[in-house]
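Hey, can you fold this one?
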Amino acid sequence: MVHADKQVTQLCFSFSLVNNMTDELPRTVKEIRAWLLTELTADVRKKRNIDDDDFKNILRCLHDLASWYWEQNIVLGHFLTYVVKNDFVRASTQADSSNVKALDVFARFVYNRLPSDWRQKGQAL
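Sure. Predicted structure:
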């Protein structure tokens, strides 16, 4: 009996860890902006010629990706659809002048900031 209780306790602990990891993933514009500022520092933005309008567009698209994952009925455009389908060759052909400067950021966002089942959800599009 003690052994079964220990397994249940471990299972509950593991489940809470998964939930905590998910809760830490960025969902709001403010959280995504904070993450984006660590990815696109002032030096990186200067080297890539990313101005304030480009930054705002990239941020909006990253927020659209987060909204697509966490919410129902979010329609993505061609560029973001290819991103979530993990087809960055096609994504690069659909990227606008802002997003093409940050393709690697979009890849890191979906790989590192969305839960791992984003691939299955993306393939269903």
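The two ends are 47 Å apart (CA to CA). Let me know if you want another pass with a different chain boundary.
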